[in-house]
Amino acid sequence: MNGQGASAGAVIRDEYGECIDWKVAFWPHILERDHAEALAARSAVEMVGNYQGQYIQFQSGCAEVVSLLTSKCGWVGPIAPIISDILVLQQAGIYGHFSCIPKSGNQVAWLLAQHAHTDAAEGLLPQYVLEALEMDRLGMEGFG
Asked: Which residues form the RNase H type-1 domain (predicted)?
């Protein structure tokens, strides 16, 4: 988020940590961080479902959204329907781990989000994002 909307990046990996797809999203009229992070979580869970995946590891810098996603009760406010959508998707067999991590700890998703702000996010990723994906994959010890 930069005051001109919100963006999010997601990477789908196989069981070996290889990137099999990526997605960026940009919401030009969303300015509140918790709303943007909830939309990003829903988008990521939907993406996992489209690949018939069963596990998602969602890392967010927004502790409020992570807390809502892990508490599974008592949502109120404008993001309540989004959180509810995520839980419905999870009940369909997608298991999730939601954790709070600073932007610096999730560099690839942050670079993808920046890509959404600067480009139409169509076509190929810039070389610097591809390099970050590969470095991230090499740093993974296991997945799932």
From this structure: 4-116
Token pair 């918790």: residue: 34
Contacts 24+ apart (CB under 8 A), 69-77: 69/41, 69/96, 69/98, 70/98
* Segment 61-83, tens digit of pLDDT: 677 777 777 776 666 777 888 88
Q: Which residues pair with 10 in a beta bridge?
A: 23
- What gap in Å lies between CA 97 and CA 106, rounded to an integer? 15
Token representation of residue 131? 């390099």
Cα angle value 80/95/113 (rounded, 5°) = 65
Q: Assess contact for 15 and 118: CB atoms under 8 A.
A: no
Name all domains of the chain by residue range, CATH numbers in brackets: 6-138 (3.30.420.10)
Phi/psi of residue 64, each to 5°? -60, -45
Q: How far apart are the first and last CA of the chain?
A: 29
DSSP conformation letters of 104-133: GG-HHHHHHHHHHHHS---SSPPHHHHHHH
